[in-house]
Amino acid sequence: MDKEFEGKVSLVTGSSRGIGKGIALKLASLGSKVAINYRSNDDEAAKVLSDIEHGGGEAMLAKCDITDSKSVKAMTREITDKWEKIDILVNNAGIVKDTLLLRMRDNDWDDVLNTNLRGAYLCTKFALRTMMDNFWGRIVNISSLAGITGNMGQANYSASKGGLIAFTKAVAREVGSRNITSNVICPGYIVTEMTGGAFAEDMQKELLARIPVSRFGNPEDVANLVAFLASERASYVSAQVISIDGGLI
Predict the structure, then answer these.
(1) 93: which residues sit within 8 A by CB, 6+ positions away?
(2) Span 142-157, pLDDT tens digits
(3) How many structural domains does the chain have?
(4) Active site residue 157
């Protein structure tokens, strides 16, 4: 397999499972060293590390609460102490606390905005320093269709993911002259460990009927797009919002 990311270092947030895990495995399979960021699930993160190493790749665990500035600074320092740089940052970590707005608690709002938006801000801020020094970098943020269309019962999640889109565009304009690109992916219905049983069978049929390609997505679909955006082939692609949803919107 072509090792197009040989010599590159990637940080993937929220990569102990789901879409983040798929992205970490894909980048590692293409030769990148990968820092596996996660908040609490030691066992799942260790499995991702083992999978990468058994495949001949190189990885490290980067346990960190990405909402905490000091912790993110320490994490990025640990990565750069080990591998000297961060070339590719994938801001994937995210949470949901869904409820109708009138029932939403302040903590439901704050927790989702802090993880989904503040976390991306902090990781980008600290990872950018080595990218700027090296005149090369790729930032790929994982948003959601909810960030484009909004979603009932997800005012907090939609706001965080919409904010991430605007953040991506602003960053692209700030750092483009340093050969750093910043793009955002908006996945549709992606089947992961978390979402696999989230919908009843009749609801699944209804959702599938709305998707032109007639299937749900999987983490590898998203990972393939991340790999393209992180590559030299996408060096002229920046500040773009790309939906990966089977044609849903």
Answers:
(1) 13, 14, 20, 37, 39, 66, 115, 116, 119
(2) 999 999 999 999 999 9
(3) 1
(4) yes
